[in-house]
Amino acid sequence: LMKFIMDRPTAYLDEMQQFIYDEYELEVSISYIRYLLDYKKWSRKKMQNQVLEQNATLQNAWQGI
To answer: Considering the entire predicted model, what is its pTM?
Structure first.
């Protein structure tokens, strides 16, 4: 799930739920996914900031900065 979130930081909880079902054929509730994210201290804002930082690093590398 964490790799999925890293790849898609703006994914909604229902999309995460569908991913878990598609990949592992497990049915988990959205509240359990929320619990896991809280437990791992992951938030949408935190993930979006990480993606923006990575994009800035890639842009700088491409531009030779």
So the answer is: 0.64
Task: Count the neighbouring beta carbons within 10 Å of the beta carbon of residue 26.
Answer: 9
Burial class (CB in 10 A: 0-12, 13-18, 19+), 16: buried
Q: What is the pLDDT along the chain (65 residues), one digit of tens a residue?
A: 878 887 887 888 999 999 999 999 999 999 999 999 888 887 766 565 555 566 556 556 656 65
Distance from C-alpha of 3 to C-alpha of 40, rounded to nearest angstrom: 13
Closest CA to 15 of 26, 30, 25: 30
CA atoms within 13 A on the CB side of 39: 7
The sign of the CA dihedral 50, 29, 31, 41 is negative
